[in-house]
Amino acid sequence: MSSDLFDLTGEVAVVTGAGRGIGEGIAKVLADYGATVITAARRTAEIERVASEIVNANGKAIAVTTDVTSDESVEDLAKRAVEQYGRLDMWVNNAGGSPLQAPLVDLPRDEWDATIALNLTAVWRCSAIAAKYMEGKGRILNISSLAAEDVIEGSGHYAAAKAGVNMLTRTFAKELGPGIRVNCIMPG
Hints:
Layout: E1 12-16, H1 21-32, E2 36-41, H2 44-56, E3 60-65, H3 71-85, E4 90-93, H4 109-134, E5 138-143, H5 156-176, E6 180-185
Parallel strand pairs: 1-2, 1-4, 2-3, 4-5, 5-6
């Protein structure tokens, strides 16, 4: 599938939340275009499956079990990319979600905290850590959601986090650019 317009040969990309859904798709497309992909998520079996499918399709990938809400785990992920492949070119912040839907007035505090930690704080920490290992040149892609701009009753906590991701993206883009390009897409 490689094309001169989108050739990632020799580049190293980390994709969080790569065990299924959008993250799995991103990891496979990056590998199809030549990138070496590090699939990362908490569910080891899922990311190992995705990495194996990439390798079986003649791509390059490894799986690294990672909890993006842990600075230590994210730091280990970035170090692993650089130690194993000598560089880090791209980081995709895809891990996220929220298992609970409830009106904001009924939302338990622990669910608010968990959703903000996974969907906003982790994007901030992953981006900051990734930038350190990119040494001034690379790309960070944040996956947000149309929920950041639309009211979806029962998902106010998730929407607030994703709206925060949009502003984090804009701020990181100004602070890290032009060497590190930071962008966001909002599926949905």
